[in-house]
Amino acid sequence: MKKFLPFVVIKEAFLIILIGGFVGMAANLLNPNGIKISSERPPIEYADDSVLAEDLPPVQINGANQDDFAPDSETAGPVVISMAQMKKLFAQKQAVLLDARSKNEYEQGHIPGAINIPYESMEDYMAKIDSLHEDKWLVCFCDGPPCDLGELLANELFGMGFPKVAIFQDGMNEWNKQGGKIEKTE
Amino acid sequence: MDTKQNVLVLFLRWIVAIVFIYAGVVKIINPSSFAEAIDNYRILPYFLVTLTAATLPWIELICGLLLIFGKWIRGSSLILILLNLVFLFAIGSALARGLDISCGCFSETGEGAKVGIARLGEDFILLMATAFIYMKNILRDAQN
């Protein structure tokens, strides 16, 4: 054992972890975008309703410079919306709901009116993606935390140039919890 | 060790080093999305999630740099072996639980970012390469 794991090696490893830990904590403290060391998971921050209003001029979020990468976008990236915001947008026919889960999961039960674009096989759904209207909010979702397929799909769509992309982060779990209707595909 | 083996170990060392330097830097640039990625695995309590997100990328980066410069090779490769084992366990458990999450290995978006068999395979190859570097250096030093 001593031959394969000499004390000096354990000492080296221990020192590396110590230095890495110290530098990491210091860098995190100095980093304005650093994370808060805490035992409390931060709550989901939903976009302000004004971001979703139909006739307002484009807004900037978090001071990001939208001109750099998406000149026509309304926001600096996909915005996170609540279930109430999602329902309102959908009822006002301002949104298209995009279910990022697998085809199988979608068929077993989905929000009525939602379109299935599985993130994992996005390339097979390009025709569907191309047919999406740029003037509508594309609301992406999956099961809800910890699933992040909705967020990944939203990032992809925003990167493809869709200007109004939203993430319904609470996803199907919240929809079911609140007794939302479910449609099955036969 | 003969020259051929020396070259192989050096080559592997650099490959592993570049992989971990890249992985570290990507996570250092965006610590909050790395924290989110760790949290999505639902393995650690949130306090340890934040602590890991702040420190782990720097440990990866330091280990990578040490491997490049040929210092403390055994210590850094030992850490990387342990890290790869942890990653294998985390990805394996996420797969077993059917979690639809991104790996958090290198970046948050893009093709192949999701946990899956491919990620397990990549990790296993990295583990083997790192273990080879460790053993070769341990045996060489034992001979000297």
Short description:
Chain A is an alpha/beta fold and 186 residues long. Chain A has helices at 7-30, 49-52, 83-91, 103-108, 126-130, 149-159, 171-177, and strands at 79-81, 95-99, 115-116, 137-141, 165-168.
Spans where pLDDT lies below 50 across 5 or more residues of chain A: 56-71
Give helix and strand order of chain B, one letter per element, not per position. Answer: HHHHH
Largest interface here, residues on each chain?
Answer: A-B, 45 and 44 residues
Order of helices and strands of chain A: HHEHEHEHEHEH
Tell me the CATH architecture of the largest domain in chain A. 3-Layer(aba) Sandwich
Q: Using the CA coordinates, give the radius of gyration of chain A.
A: 21 Å
Question: What form of chain B results from the Cα inertia axes?
Answer: globular
| Helix percentage of chain A | 25-40%
The multimeric state of the shown protein is: heterodimer
Task: Compute the number of structural domains of chain B.
Answer: 1
Calculate Rg of chain B over CA atoms: 16 Å
Number of domains of chain A: 2
- Secondary structural class of chain A: alpha/beta
- CATH homologous superfamily caption of the largest domain in chain A: Rhodanese-like domain
Strand content of chain A: 5-15%
Distance between the termini of chain A: 61 Å
Low-confidence stretches of chain B at least 5 residues in length (pLDDT < 50)?
Answer: none
Major sheet details of chain A: 5 strands, parallel
